[in-house]
User: Fold 2Fe-2S iron-sulfur cluster-binding protein from Flectobacillus longus.
Amino acid sequence: MKVTIDNITIEVEPGTTIMQAARQIGAHVAPPAMCYYEPLKGSGGKCRACLVKVTAGSEKDPRPMPKLVPSCITQVQDGMIVENTTSPQVLEARKGVVEFLLLNHPLDCPVCDQAGECHLQDFTFEHGVSKTRTIEERNTFEPQDLGPYIQLNMNRCVLCYRCVYTADQVTEGRVHGVMHRGDHAEISTYIEKAIDNDFSGNVIDVCPVGALTDKTYRFKNRVWFTKPVDAHCDCGKCSGKVTLWYRGDEVIRVTARKNEWGEVQDFICNTCRFERKKTSDWTIEGPMKVARHSVISANKYGASSIKPAFPLKQAAEQYKQIDDNRDRSFLEPQKQLK
Ligand code: SF4
Ligand code: FES
Assistant:
């Protein structure tokens, strides 16, 4: 089937979604994704980060689709024409999606372990606005321990369901899920039951934000100060292919390897993740290739500082003229002292 995305035409197999077709073209055309995760069956359709405009449904029926559609669950038709970054309507809608995702978010990136590899941070940087329009109190939750290795900070969760699908599809029994509905919805375990399973640590890797973090790594370092190295071991439970994150000579974190979309290549077991933290446990392959455009790796903070218009505009908006006609009589006593 032929599909055109942002003026680039590609041929794909029937059943391909717009997101998959866009990813085949390349990162510059691929819509952002907060809930879709290719290795997890059934993921997508929750967050609306990937909305695109279909200006022609197919060659047979070239009418445009009346509303923006989620590209991760919409299959392409032959002759379909899609606009992603070329549509001002899509870009405007994404600003709204970011605003909704941040509505209850604590904006605690400076103390969040996920900062630097957080999809919400990237999404906000690329598509959000720099101001908040809300003054209402945010939903807050106490941090929860989910067993010995995983910490849940529900304040940061965007309810993407990735961790729920991971527990369903990768572990032997899911003991957590989304409780309640609407703005009461939250990820939780019944009666704070520990997530205790050989593959449970993978929920940390799939979480796009800092809601599920590794307790053995929390607050040890900022990710951009660490050195990631690909390594493998002979593991009986998983593929044993991991990334080791070094601080000096010390392995401070072990994660699964990720592809250019930030998705896990091989889910790894808890023994590799939490218990093999010595270099001697591993055969080192070499430095990890940083493929994803994270806020830090893409040097986006640098990008904003070399664009003087951005901070100047911010400063100009908050600048108050100094009133030189103020009453100066309060200076008089000092004059008298002299
Ligand atoms: S905890 Fe993370 S992975 Fe699970 S639903 Fe929330 S944001 Fe998604
Ligand atoms: S990535 Fe498509 S709806 Fe979330």
Remarks:
- The longest helix spans residues 88-101.
- The two ends are 89 Å apart (CA to CA).
- Residues 222-293 form one domain.
